[in-house]
TrEMBL record:
Keywords: Cell junction, Membrane, Tight junction, Transmembrane, Transmembrane helix. It is a multi-pass membrane protein. One of its GO terms (cellular component) is plasma membrane. This is CLD12 protein. The chain crosses the membrane at residues 6-30, 88-114, 134-156, 168-196. It is found in: Cell junction, Tight junction; Membrane. Its main location: other.
Length: 245
């Protein structure tokens, strides 16, 4: 596997990162982080389930899809610490992952469309695709940590609420979506690291161009006169000696 070719590993990493970002976006927008189920012993009334998200809160009767109480200003009055942390952590994780996707795309485009023989004058300005993928892998790993830690904390905080109040709290589907997205980000970073490990034998630094000098300096430089003269007798200049009369 060489760094100067587009491989299935980098393409799969880009697709996996894109799917993970989409999953994070769904987890951020869905109002399904925590459920609070309120039971009634009155046969003429129905039980109520309160769905709590990061930005909105919705209360529904059992068997109904319409919100009896809909609070679009919930994000300003969140009184649960884990959800408040997630309001900052998940958008930050998404931003980090998007930056990683951008770097990954730059690396693939550079690999696919840039000539393998760079211009001597532009050699120091070229982008190293291996370096782009390495930094993208680090950013994906950082985004995974930022997303995974508070998402798992929701589960433990939910148990804390049940012990402190009543066992009416349960975490909802957005927790699983966020954890699965974090796993996708980790898988993406592993793919990029594996791809980079196959390229680490290159002599150039990780962020410098793949060629520390232009290939023309290495492959097409003229050889010394003595070396050329040993290759072929045709290239040897025979001096002509004349004697003055």
């Amino acid at each position: 596997m060489g760094c100067r070719d587009v491989h299935a590993a980098t393409v799969l990493a880009f697709l996996s990162g894109t799917a993970s970002v989409a999953g994070l976006l769904a987890a951020v927008l869905l109002p399904n982080w925590r459920q609070m189920r309120l039971y009634t012993f009155n046969k003429n009334e129905r039980n109520v389930t309160i769905y709590t998200g990061l930005w909105i809160k919705c209360a529904r009767f059992d068997g109904s899809r319409d919100c009896v109480i809909y609070d679009p200003q919930w994000y300003t009055a969140v009184d649960q610490l884990d959800l408040r942390v997630l309001q900052f952590a998940l958008p930050l994780s998404m931003l980090t992952a998007v930056c990683a996707l951008f770097l990954c795309l730059i690396g693939m485009c550079n690999t696919a469309f840039v000539s393998t023989v760079p211009n001597v004058k532009l050699a120091k300005c070229l982008v190293n695709s291996a370096g782009c993928h390495l930094v993208a892998g680090l950013l994906f790993l950082l985004a995974c940590a930022i997303c995974l830690t508070p998402s798992i904390w929701v589960i433990f905080y939910n148990n804390y609420l049940n012990r402190k109040y009543e066992p009416v709290f349960s975490f909802d589907i957005s927790v699983f979506i966020a954890i699965a997205s974090a796993g996708g980000l980790f898988f993406t970073s592993v793919l990029l690291f594996l791809w980079y490990c196959a390229c680490k034998s290159l002599p150039s630094p990780f962020w410098q161009p793949l060629y520390s000098h232009a290939p023309s300096m290495h492959s097409y430089a003229s050889q010394p006169y003595s070396a050329r003269s040993r290759l072929s007798a045709i290239e040897i200049d025979i001096p002509v000696v004349t004697h003055a009369s």
